[in-house]
Amino acid sequence: MTSTAAERPDIGAARPTLRAGTLVAGCFAVGVAQIGIVLPAVINGPIQRTLHASGAELSWIGDAFLLPIAVLSLTFGVLGDLRGRKKILVGGGLLMALGYLVAATSSTVPVLAVGHALAGIGAAALFQSSLAVITAATPEPAHRARGLAAWATALSIGAVLAPLLSGIITQTASFYWVFGACALIAAVSAGLSAVLVDDSSAPEGRAADWPGQATIAFSVLALLYGVIQGPLDGWTDPGVLVAFALGVIAFAGFLWVESRSASPMLRLELFRIPAFATSAIVAVIGMFSFLGCGYVLSIRLGVIQHQTPMKTAWPFVIVQGVPLLFGPLLARLLRQVGPRWLLVTGLVAQAASHLWLAAIPVSQTGVMPILGVLVLNGVSFILLISGLTAAMVNAVPVELAGMASGTAGLVRDLGQTMGPAVIGTVALSQAAPLLTGGLASANLPPDQLAPAEAILHEGGPIAVATAQLGPRVHEIATDALANGYADGLVVTASAAAVAAVVAALFLRTKGVR
């Protein structure tokens, strides 16, 4: 369905208005999409114990959802402009429901990952189209600000509800029912969009950039394969080396395609603006750091400490809930402090919270020992996101603000996709030799040592920790994992510190508009 006269102010008809139904459906859709990002954090432990997943397989399950969001969101934005945003919104909800149904009925890690990937494709459609149907109906700045505030609030609420949903369901039932519940919610979102949303489109001058889409998707997938499989298959394994080479070649091809495309998905000229390029670098590193820490926290609570689903859920509720409390202060902070120092403060706080968590022994369970870490991490996140968005949008001319906002989303998503994969790789690479040495020096009986070494070779340290080979093997494996993931937190803290230095030294932005 194309734009009607009511949606086209340029042909003399009434200006579009945002109806309550469109706002409700758009906000519900983005909340559903955001639930999927936070969802695995609480159920990584149950998934690992039920399907005997290795650390690499847990990384694949999480990134199967994040990767489509990173590489497909901009294309779904173009398709919505061309074909109608309502169609993309409804189709995205249905695809999420289908993906979650596949995950809910899976019995192996590969099938679960496929289901999660389908849901991630649907989420990519929802993120873009839910925002587009709201902005298309709010040409007036004041009305648009209120619509965007409602959309952002719904996104935050989804992030808070996700761990509660996972924890409550998994506390009394299998983790499969979490995916079943999400399938139902996604189907409801599709129904609401079909009934309530006013359609709109803007096809003039828009075209899908399929060569760019294909090359960036292949590049990120190949690099992820190399990063995730490296510790398991070996860094000199031909498959890992080929994956890295293909990833670099495909990324070079993406840059070449974008520089020559009439309608590129990523306008490279934006990166000639120093403030925008600096903000993009900070966005990738900052989101890499934040999601990497979130992955470590998930493994610490669910896999290493074996905490119950609800006890695993509450820390994530706190981290995601803090931004809701700080929301009303952000506009004032941006005006008084500016994006640059908001970013620097957020990144320094992020680095401090990660080092703080690394210093807390895994023997200390429950929320109270890590409460300060959680609050500080939540504060750092809202400062990071707010500062990044303002810095990138305000670095470009007004007529390029929409393009800058879309690019900001792309680089943030790429950072958060790489975070769990890289930090999981760092942690497992550090834990494996520690576990090998611990097993060798523990004077274990042959009926424990041989199976432990075989499981370590096939499934990695996490598999050994959950193999029930006796308390001594479990203790050695847990200590190795704790040290490995603590090293991962040092990496995320270092990344945040580097990003803070880059922002402090090189980021120069105009006043917030």
Task: Describe what you observe in this structure.
This protein is mostly helical and 513 residues long. 79% of the residues lie in helices and 0% in strands. The protein is built from 17 helices and no strands. The protein has helices spanning 20-38, 40-51, 55-83, 85-104, 109-136, 141-172, 176-196, 210-233, 238-260, 274-304, 309-336, 339-359, 371-394, 401-440, 446-459, 461-465, 471-506. The chain is globular, with a radius of gyration of 23 Å.
| Basic shape | globular
Beta-strand percentage range = under 5%
Major beta sheet summary:
none
Q: What is the CA-based Rg, rounded? A: 23 Å
**Oligomerization state of this entry?**
single chain
| Poorly predicted spans | 1-13
Number of helices: 17
Distance between the termini: 34 Å
| Number of extended strands | 0
* Strand-pairing-aware structural class: mainly alpha
- Taken in chain order, the helices and strands follow as HHHHHHHHHHHHHHHHH
Q: Helicity, in percent?
A: over 70%
Question: Please, what is the average pLDDT?
Answer: 85
